[in-house]
Inverse folding.
């Protein structure tokens, strides 16, 4: 999923590697007319203005202008290997530099490659100090933070202020894979979930990380806030709440709940119970849960459910 022009939600790719493109007009609350398929099925993508960078699993890359559908070749940075970033999550909001972080993908070999996509459609290759797999990544105070995904090297790395290189943070190695992470303020990030291979694959709970820590740094467990779900996503909603979305490990059912400053978990029931859904943040601060399939007969769910945060 990607947000275009602060109002259109683009959806493609997924487990079935489809090139079909669905567009939701979030300003008018309607689905846009049926779209012409993309030139290739995206394994990862990013947006720069009206241009969509599509990286497929060939692997190769294509620029497509969303308004005209015209495609152009990609002037790739030296040493970039698309095979080392495809499948990685895109981190960064609409109208900001976006990062395709190969180290966040859940399958394949560990990688240190990160592609920065600027708003003028220029591309820059960055390299982590440590190759990672299943790492978590978010933007903290305008800088990309990557955590976990390796049992060697520093437990976290952060891009410098210029956005040109990574620096290690003095955290011990963190092999946790599949965690969710979100920035809480200008220095603090909150993580949830993920499985730790060094702890029999147990799912980790909520914990915080101070990116300004200078020495003897540790993630701090948040007491009484266990997280027993796979494939987590975290979002900041309102002034003092986080919203967590995850899947129950046995059934795969999508679960949604909030987490407040008192570390209280409040569960919410989806109007259409589902498994395998995706979650996303809209520019207006609402969180949407999209797609998936029903639990009883596994038919696709077409509805989008939105969470309206408190003022």
């Amino acid at each position: 999923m990607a947000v275009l022009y602060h109002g259109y939600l683009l959806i493609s790719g997924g487990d079935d590697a489809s090139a079909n493109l669905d567009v939701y007009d979030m300003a008018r609350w309607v689905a846009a007319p049926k779209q012409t398929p993309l030139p290739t099925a995206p394994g990862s993508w990013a947006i720069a203005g009206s241009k969509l960078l599509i990286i497929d699993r060939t692997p190769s890359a294509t620029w497509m202008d969303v308004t005209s559908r015209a495609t152009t070749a990609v002037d790739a940075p030296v040493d970039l290997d698309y095979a080392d970033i495809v499948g990685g999550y895109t981190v960064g909001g609409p109208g900001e530099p976006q990062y395709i972080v190969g180290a966040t993908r859940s399958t394949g070999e560990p990688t240190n490659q990160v592609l920065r996509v600027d708003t003028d459609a220029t591309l820059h290759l960055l390299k982590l100090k440590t190759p990672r797999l299943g790492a978590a990544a978010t933007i903290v105070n305008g800088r990309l933070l990557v955590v976990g995904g390796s049992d060697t090297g520093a437990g976290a790395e952060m891009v410098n202020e210029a956005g040109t290189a990574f620096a290690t943070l003095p955290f011990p190695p963190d092999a946790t894979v599949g965690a969710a992470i979100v920035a809480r303020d200008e220095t603090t990030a909150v993580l949830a979930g993920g499985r730790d291979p060094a702890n029999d694959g147990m799912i980790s709970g909520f914990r915080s990380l101070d990116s300004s820590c200078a020495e003897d740094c540790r993630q701090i467990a948040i007491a009484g806030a266990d997280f027993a779900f796979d494939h987590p996503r975290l979002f900041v909603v309102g002034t003092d709440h986080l919203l967590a979305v995850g899947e129950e490990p046995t059934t795969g059912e999508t679960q949604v709940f909030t987490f407040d400053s008192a570390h209280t978990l409040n569960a919410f029931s989806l109007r259409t119970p589902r498994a395998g859904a995706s979650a996303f943040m809209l520019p207006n601060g609402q969180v949407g849960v999209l797609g998936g399939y029903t639990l009883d007969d596994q038919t696709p769910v077409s509805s989008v459910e939105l969470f309206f945060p408190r003022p």
Observations:
- The mean pLDDT is 92.
- The chain is about 0% helix and 45% strand.
- The two ends are 26 Å apart (CA to CA).
- The longest strand covers residues 123-132.
